[in-house]
Structure formats: C-alpha cells, structure tokens
C-alpha cells in the first residue's frame, strides 16, 4: 500500500502522492476494482467503526494498487490545473512502450532503457521530455494508465513534479510564491520546498501553512492555504513554535496528513473518519480559534490587537466580564494562551468553555504512521547465513491515541461532582510513550497520549 523511497530527496513528492493513494485504498475501494466491487467496500460504507483486519492491506491486488496510483496522480494534476486541465510530462523512452501489453514487461523495458541515462544539462533533459495536455479527467486517467511505468521508474518523481508545475503553469507558480527567487527544490540534497508540498496538497505553490493570506501593510501579503484540502499537513516545526498550521490543512476532508520534520516527509492516517468529529465544546473552541487566528497578524505568534480582539468577541458572541476584559487588554495586545485560560474559566452560558455537565469526553482512536524510506527498518534486522544484509523496507506503525478532556482531572471532578470512586478513575494516569511524531500529533490533538508496539515511529 506504500510507495518506497530508496534515496534521499523526493520524500515531499512521494508523501503527497502516498496520502492520496491511501485515500483511494481506504475510502474509495470500489473505484479501484475492475468490476466496481471490492472486498473492502462494506467496511468503507460502515465508516470503519472497527479496527482494520491485519490482512487488510495485504489483500490489495496489484491492479488495485496501480489504479490507486493512477487516480492519485490524476487527481493531484487536475488540482494543480485548477480542475480544468492536467499536463503530463514523460520521457522520450516511453515510445518503447508501444506494443507491450503486460505492465510488468513495460516496467522492465523502462528500467532497462533508463539504466545509465544521464543528462549533461537542463536543456538536454528538456529535449527528452514529451508533454501531453489533457482537458478531462477521463483522458488524463487513460494517458496515465498507458504511461504509468514511466512514473514507476527511477525518473518518476521528477517527471511527476514537472507535470504538477506545468499543470499549474509556471507563471502561476511564481505568482503563488512570496519570494519567486528562491529555489523550489533545495540544495544540496534535493528536498522539496513547502511550496511544492502545498502545490500537491492544495493546487497552489504558496509558501506558508496558515489559512488565507496575511496583510503586512503597504500592499504586502504573505500567502497561505486558501481552502480546505482533501488530505492535510502537520509539521514538527509547529511544536517547536516555528510556524502555525491553519485549520485548512489540520482538518482535511479525509483523516490523512503528510507529516513534515526538519529533513523528511512521512504520512499519518486513520481509517475512521470519526477521528475528526468534535463534540459541542470542541466545535465552540474551533469557532473561537478560527476567529482569533483571522485577526492574528503576527505570523502565527498567537497574539492580536485590542481592536482585533473586540472583533473576535463580536463574531463569537462572547460576553466577557468587564474585569476579565480589562485584564486581557491591559498590555495593548491579547495573547492566545492567556485568552485560553479565560475561556476555560468562563461559563458556557457566557460563550466560554466551562461546562459543569462535563460533556468534554476523552477520545480514543487509532492512527497509522507510514515512513516510505527503505532505510527505516531492515527486513529481519540480522545478517543472513550467507553474509548478505537483508533487504530494507518501509515501516508502518499503529498508534493508539488517547485525547483527554480539555480540563484537568481536578477541574473535571470539581465541576462534575464526581464521587471518590469516579475521582480515582479520572485521575488515573495514562501510560505514555514519546517520539517526535507525538509532538506533531499534539499540534492536531492537544495533550494526546500515544502508544505503540515495538520501536518508536520515525519521522526522519
């Protein structure tokens, strides 16, 4: 079910495609089966209220994997083409595919043809490109199906990236960016910039991960993600306070996220859409946070002006007592963390989050983490009797995630009037494990506790 990365560099491209591949495998299996019927379709219709069986991914046929890849590439390219077109860039060696019927034979022909191929210059590379413009999804999928061995070859990642850039249009790519002079692929290791990742996720090569755009004054703006996406994005950099991921990327349509670290991109996903469901107070918090972020001109720093704060209060229908209002505004700006504490202490009837009924319950669900780089874990971990090092493979890790109520146990007990027996159960600590991935998960589900079997999941 996963794309394998053998060398450093293309993880940003591969992780984005991987996220869409998972979308089709998990949530649209009927679109992958030849006859429109899949053994996994019934589980999808139930919205996966139960855990996946251990052989779920193993049951996917090679044909279904290919269709998932074709549909994912096609969807991304059409997204880049503003749903109007897709540009498909392939290599001239694709002409050798004519007359070959079996996909595995095509893969072998392409691999042999590309073995040892080098390019002396960008112009040399460009001369070997073949460009097809498709104006419909049907023609796009047909073209991709015929040329999919090219995209499965060692040149697949770069050809797909060129296809995405051309689908968007090079002038539009430059217009999307804050600084068009910066490279899209960073030296020296060929890592994808945030512009590339955003292009593949939202169809625009914007450089920032916050929602909308930020007005810096004087006609200057910083550009972020303008609408909700199919699959989302989380980053370790947010947990380190380097950036703030907006709700458009944090709450995608499907529970699948590309995860960025300082040097690598991986994917986390859930098989149950309910992981994104919110109770009444979570919805209220999201509403307040969205209104606050809309007034935040600090680049995700978490503070707003007094005038912006008054706008937040109007939009959210919040009735703050005068003494709390004066206290928050005394510094001339309002910090989210201080505002958050006021919200926890402000009764629900006044527009706050304090609910004596204790309706903010704990959520427990499963997430899966996929690291596609083949160096992640060795196949067996030991040298064989013949002295050969086993083949290495990607790694899939299942995490059990527990998200506690937003109040502390003490607050919960005091307000809900728990009995002594209840108090013991509420305050019982959750066993926890930690890895950098957990910090990423907590940017989406604050205070989440994660557990897994075996080695910690790696995001590098």
UniProtKB/TrEMBL annotation:
It comes from the Eukaryota. Coiled coil: none annotated. Residues 1-345 form the Deubiquitinating enzyme MINDY-3/4 conserved domain. Pfam families: MINDY-3_4_CD (PF13898). The keyword Iron-sulfur does not apply. It is an enzyme of class 3 (hydrolase). Its EC number is 3.4.19.12. Keywords: Ubl conjugation pathway. InterPro entries: EF-hand-dom_pair, MINDY-3/4_CD, MINY3/4. It catalyses: Thiol-dependent hydrolysis of ester, thioester, amide, peptide and isopeptide bonds formed by the C-terminal Gly of ubiquitin (a 76-residue protein attached to proteins as an intracellular targeting signal). One of its GO terms (molecular function) is cysteine-type deubiquitinase activity. GO terms for biological process: protein K48-linked deubiquitination; proteolysis. Belongs to the MINDY deubiquitinase family. FAM188 subfamily. Hydrolase that can remove 'Lys-48'-linked conjugated ubiquitin from proteins. This is ubiquitinyl hydrolase 1. It comes from Kalanchoe fedtschenkoi.
